[in-house]
Each structure stands twice: as structure tokens, then as C-alpha cells.
Write a structure and sequence with these properties.
131 residues; mainly alpha; globular
Amino acid sequence: MRYALIALLVLFASCSEREAVPEGVMPRDEFTEVLLEMTLTEARMNHEITSLQQELPPMRRYYAGIFTAHGIDSLAFRRSFDHYAMRPREMQGIYEAVVEQLRVMKDSGTQEVPLTKDTTLATDSSSVRNR
């Protein structure tokens, strides 16, 4: 009986610890931050498309700016996304953290979209021509 109790304790302890992130996969906090920035950028672009009747924005360029700011590329993001997607509970926690950060930003009034170094939005006629 005592051995069964010890085995259960070990099992619970091992389940509560997070799995080590493999090489080439972004740490959870950084991945969450990138998803937050991408979500804010997409929301801003969707607003411009619908309310300002703009053409489709250059999302790849905006994503590239986010990736550059975090020192990654699209392949590293995809590898990280795939890693966390294979762990539904962890991915759910990441999305919950993004939603919570969005809620905090909304409540505090800090809803600016971090577009990294390229702050030209689709409302700028030069960005529409230069795509």
C-alpha cells in the first residue's frame, strides 16, 4: 500500500512539471508574446480593412517584423507552434494567457499594436503601392 502511495505521488509530481522545451522551440513565455503581438496586429489590420475599406495589408511583412524583433524566423515560429499544438493543454494555457493580456491591455487603455520597427500601416498610401 505504501509503495502504491509513493508511486502515485511520483506520478503526480511528474505530471505537474512542464516538459523541457526542445532546441529550436521558443520558450513558452516568448511564444506567448509573439502570439499576442500577432493577434494585435491582425486585429488592427482587420479593423482597417473593414472600417477604412483598405486593401489587404502586407501581413507577411508585419509578421516578419515581429519575428525579427524576437530574433526568430517563420520556420522557428512554425516549429514552436507545432510543438505547442501537439500539447493541447499547454496551448490552451498559452491562448488563455494571450486573452488575459489582451483583457489587461483593454482595461488599462494600452491597446497600441507593436508593429516593431515598421510602423507603416495599410492606411498609408505608400505602403499600399509598394507591396
